[in-house]
Amino acid sequence: MRDFLPKEAERMRxxxxxxxxxAQLYGYGEVITPVVESYDLLAAKSGEEIRKxxxxxxxxxxxxxxxxxxxxxxIARLMATKMRNEPKPMRLFCVGSLYRxxxxxxxxxxxxxxxxxxxxxxxxPEADAEILMLTYDLMEKxxxxxxxxxxxxxxxxxxxxxxxxxxxxxxNVIMQLLDKKQWDEALTATREFGVSQKCVTTxxxxxxxxxxxxxxxxxxxxxxxxxxxxxxxxxxxxREITEFAKESDAKxxxxxxxxxxxxxxxxxxxxxEPYVPDMDIALSGGGRYDKLIELFGGEPTPAVGVxxxxxxxxxxxxxxxxxxxxxxxKRIVIIPIGEKPRARVLELSLVLRRVGIPVEVEVMGxxxxxxxxxxxxxxxxxxxxxxxxxxxxxxxxxxEMKKREQRTVKIRNLSQEILxx
Length: 421
Description:
421 residues; five-stranded mixed β-sheet
């Protein structure tokens, strides 16, 4: 778990704000859920790997609880209880910190932040396509380049295994191995569960099928699974979703991967993760989960969503040297010369803040040269130097730090002069 120093915190909050703005654009209403939830709720369909890594403990009332490792279980609880009678579809947004006892490495932390978008109530492929489009839009708004979305469908593998009478718990074991990219181990486990040789051959071909030529790859997958009815239906569903996304004018690359799996057990349909070439970890992830709300006592309710990794998106922006809105923000310091202007300096700072200009006031009693050195180190863009002589004429000195140029300006024109430079 980490401390965020000012620049890092600014980058994180900027990324978070972009996700909030996007939620408003798409009509997703924000909900706030507890950091601590019932262990049983969080463990119900999270997957064995996540269950092992939850921060779980007993509270003072003797209840077994855990820090949330992801948001979707809490959203499903809300939909099964307090929001069960709300009109559908529901579009919900939530953002905050999550906790898993992972081994810390680049882009993977024990405390991390996500922004979740959940579209609840529709089983149509248009809903899945909206989540893909929303993710594309977020990448664009953050200024990320050369990204692509890896897309699969859990119904392909599960459809094959179900037709071979592989139990759900056994399917989960195989999906967990696929999530870890342990393909040989997954095939070995499949054999141990007593499937036919045809099934093993089909799965082997499926696991080797991936590519960015969407139509060709989907056709190849469909040919491979032609003897498995529900797997064929899953391929057709994926074809519809990708066609809707392409027709929406959302210009992003798709990598179709038939053997793609994600660690959470509740997925029932399309799944996806976005990547950038500079990082070998997914920036976010999501998919369809049509059974989860029902599991928590709600009505059968289809749903699809995505968890955007704020930490990882911020890392990607930094790696690609993006986020111009942060670097171009004006920062002002007002420096009094001597004792007399101090009260006027406070008045000036308030005037500038009222028009949205961020201002710091020199309060250390340092000389102008020392104060300017400190301002330069902090990345201040402008210094306003307030001296008694200039104040007699209602003027101050405005210094542009990068250019090392300064001029005298009228106080009434100060904010306009700052904003135009």
